[in-house]
């Protein structure tokens, strides 16, 4: 994934900087918003780029922030790692106002990074990027045997599923018993 | 990467982007996985028209055909999803793994070249292998697994190129047979075969002694029949006894008299009640075929009006097209018992007959409406 074209990142909510605007400047001045992930690094992103995310788009369309208010109130995504959020921001900037291509080959190759990206993209509701990511996840098991697939996607065996189910039932039973005992104590 | 950590919508999106073959292999990972795939892919599985077990050079290939697929070229046929193969040969094993298939442990192998798409008619796919003595139980386990996975909206077909080949008898498994017995074949053997396999979906046959098959035989119950070079007596017996839905008679040794006789039988409602499509190609010696349309009960739409086109899904499963050849004809006949209409057409030496799910009144209304819309 390449670096951002329109938004840049900075450490802490200090003064986020902006990359030069593209040649075809819009007639109406574009509004910008600020987001940060677990690492607190703030990214300045245009509203146009953020349109890819149904979640953020929904948030900003109801806020009516001024530039100052937006800067003072970056959207916190504490559940998303900084580098993953950077990837998402880069992608949104690269595909701002453009039709999305049928394939995206710039997704991370490492399994764990891709996994985190999928979760982030799903949370932020970026439909096209989610489809690309899921395609890449699907490709991981193309032509693989069930055992190989189990290893790649860490799928529990039937025995493991049964043991987990038993354990969950036991836990639920214990919790129910605890609640009954507490209720009886309260009654006394 | 733990798949189970993804929310359901993400898991579904991943599955939606997988080929059916890969989903099939994923389903063996666990019972829960199989259930998850089945529940998330109901739309895809409902769009499968049939799963076929095809015999090809000592192996059986399990292929999926989707309803929307229009197989026009050899490439399209090769693109048919082949999900697995089955073999009773134990040699040449490269990469082996065992799977629990409907409670039965079955060995599978993958050739070194896998995956090798479109390198041969059937791509290289994981192959179940078993001892010949165990093939019946192995087929049963595999079919049970497959039919449970894809569900009951799919037609499961076993294809055999001879009635002498091995054909398992399993629930929900229809039969598609191509048989060209020689002259010396005894009628009793053929009849015994038909009696043993009553659920014949499709039958392609060429046999000089066809007329010797008893009118009560299951042969006449096949849903779709293709007969090559039927003799005149065979045509008579066939038109009297056929109880299926579609039939194609090629290089037929009959003339317009037989065609009129055939239409008369359908018209009376006493025979061919389930028929929806018939195509008869006559031999080059046939003369005056158009005379068939001059029977006094054959009706005609005015030449200035546009006749509707008849076409129904083709039951001939290896067809290169999904529907029967369109019949657009000004001529039609009406069945006496229920007033249903059949379009009749003669083009060169080809006689086509398509039954509408409409009464004459409804049929003529359709003609009228097509005039208005034009």
Automatic annotation (TrEMBL), chain A:
Keywords: Ubl conjugation pathway. It holds the Pfam family Skp1. Transmembrane segments: none annotated. Residues 1-25, 160-188 are annotated as: Disordered. Residues 38-96 form the SKP1 component POZ domain. GO terms for biological process: protein ubiquitination; ubiquitin-dependent protein catabolic process. Residues 165-177 have a biased composition (Basic and acidic residues). Residues 8-25, 178-188 have a biased composition (Low complexity). InterPro entries: SKP1, SKP1-like, SKP1-like_dim_sf, SKP1/BTB/POZ_sf, Skp1_comp_dimer, Skp1_comp_POZ. Pathway: Protein modification; protein ubiquitination. The keyword Heme does not apply. Residues 127-170 form the SKP1 component dimerisation domain. Belongs to the SKP1 family. Probable essential component of SCF (SKP1-CUL1-F-box protein) E3 ubiquitin-protein ligase complexes, which mediate the ubiquitination and subsequent proteasomal degradation of target proteins. Regulates cell proliferation during embryonic and larval development. This is Skp1-related protein. It comes from Caenorhabditis nigoni. The lineage of its organism: Eukaryota, Metazoa, Ecdysozoa, Nematoda, Chromadorea. The gene is Cnig_chr_III.g8742.
Automatic annotation (TrEMBL), chain B:
Residues 1-48 form the F-box domain. Pfam families: F-box. PANTHER family: F-BOX ASSOCIATED DOMAIN-CONTAINING PROTEIN-RELATED, F-BOX-CONTAINING HYPOTHETICAL PROTEIN C.ELEGANS. This is F-box domain-containing protein. It comes from Caenorhabditis nigoni.
